[in-house]
Amino acid sequence: MKMPHHPDRQDIQLSSVLYALSDPIRLYLVDVIHKSGERRCGDIAVPVVKSTLSHHYRTLREAGILHVRVQGTQRFSSIRTEDLEVRFPGLLGSILDAYHASGESERLTEPG
């Protein structure tokens, strides 16, 4: 299995990060992973088909927001918190705070 490409820290672009986080599904994925830590791709219930979910994960990875680790046939995602904080101090926290304050985080919730 080919290892997924991750941009180097210095290559993470603000416009790419903001674009990736502009989609409600991607923002929800980042919020859940940020709260819970590393998650297996596909374990977060979202109302999209598998191919669309793969697209969302790829967009987040290519923007430099997620790190995807491959273990056998499984893929695990975690937030590149340190890289994002070095590149854009406070950005992710501010976006997630605004996301919670807006009430949008209540629209998609994990079962259980």
CATH topology group: Arc Repressor Mutant, subunit A
Which word captures the global form? Answer: globular
How many DSSP helices? 5
Q: How many β strands by DSSP?
A: 3
Find the structural class using helix and strand composition: alpha+beta
Helix content: 40-55%
Text of the CATH class = Mainly Alpha
The fourth-level CATH homologous superfamily is: Winged helix-like DNA-binding domain superfamily/Winged helix DNA-binding domain
Our measurement of the CA-to-CA distance between the termini, rounded to an integer number of angstroms, reads 33 Å
Average residue pLDDT: 91
Count the domains: 1
At CATH's second level, what is the architecture? Orthogonal Bundle
Strand line-up of the largest beta sheet: 1-3-2
In N-to-C order, the SSE pattern is HHEHEEHH
Main beta sheet strand tally, sense and closure: 3 strands, antiparallel
How much beta, percentage-wise?
Answer: 5-15%
Point out poorly predicted stretches: none
The whole-angstrom Rg is: 13 Å
Provide key terms for this protein.
alpha+beta; globular; 112 residues; DNA binding; 3-stranded antiparallel sheet; 3 strands
Question: Could you provide a short overview of the structure?
Answer:
This protein has 112 residues and is α+β, with helices and mostly antiparallel strands. It has 5 helices and 3 strands, in the order H-H-E-H-E-E-H-H.
